[in-house]
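Board work, copied verbatim: Cytochrome P450
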Amino acid sequence: MTSSTTARQASEQGRVLADPNAYADNDRLHEALTWLRANEPVAWVDNPPYRPFWGITKHSDIMDIERDNELWISEPRPLLLPAETEDAVKRDQDAGVGLRTLIHMDDPHHRDVRKIGADWFRPKAMRDLKVRVDELAKRYVDRMVEIGPECDFVTDIAINYPLYVILSLLGLPEEDFPRMLKLTQEMFGGEDDEHQRGEGTTEDILAVLLDFFTYFNKVTESRRANPTNDLASAIANGTINGDLMSDMDTVSYYVIVASAGHDTTKDAISGGLGALIQNPDQLARLKNDMSLMPLAVEEMIRWSTPVKEFMRTATADTEVRGVPIAKGESVYLSYVSANRDEEIFDEPFKFDVGRDPNNHLSFGYGVHFCLGAALARMEMNSLFTELIPRIESIELAGEPEYTKTIFVGGLKHLPIRYSLR
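↓ predict structure ↓
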């Protein structure tokens, strides 16, 4: 193979990383990622309307980058956005009215802001919450019985269960849950015809962010005036070096918890059930040995990989796998690819409920490891511990559909036919 042919193929395959349609087509996506891992694991990608970047597809390279959070920083480009949207978001941030969540921040500010909500996701807090999560798991499996023998598992169950958990933890009123769901879908589904606001333009995306900002500014005012025993009050009244957080940082904290705190779990839950249905031997294996549940949950999370990517920018000239990367250039960390890396996982395209070890990167790695990982694992464990023993039969009742996305996504429709005890 000539170098010119290699470059051309790398360009074609690499562009998949910046194509929302590819994430709705698993065969196409994984064919490209498998090729990149084998032939061009550090690939230059230039696919307008996105600014160019280096696509990183190997598990070990992503871990190395995540470890070195001084050489590789989140700002100014923590995730892949169209250039026009990137610029508009930056203008809003400079004006103090945009969103700057934990994923946008670097240490030491990131560390200080993260601490404000960290106690709500520690093991003791999870133990205290487990009774409530178990109750909700039973409620939603009972709901499947009520609406059966068919349902769209995503829209009827997987969306609502984690949404109820996280927004209750925040202390938001239940009548506002549909609004939070819609804003989340519009924010993460900006490239998807079904979920985007309007035409999904930069102006539409900014309007969604402004709606979040307006809503949570009111929450901040309320919780500062009348603190309550919920996560929203902890965020509103959290201080750094004795000072309250800025309005932008406070609102952004709410947004990342209220949106990613349920949407990613929804993707893992629905992706997990979809995998069990399409691998009936693994469903039977789990049903016959429920002690496998913790391992099965990890495999569901690996398999679905709800967060597709984060980006980092080099603070100095460096190299990855011998490829020179200049100061100021950005790398795209493909977690979807890392979670199918043949050097890390035996038979990576096999769904295995007993996979051990399972060193997936679905929660990221290093200082930006997902704050809500323990909660997501607990929610999934509770739901599937309730659901699996009650399944008498289950099958697809139509074609699963995936969200078009660049950042966060998974199944948006999973029609199923079933019988539950």
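The radius of gyration is 21 Å.
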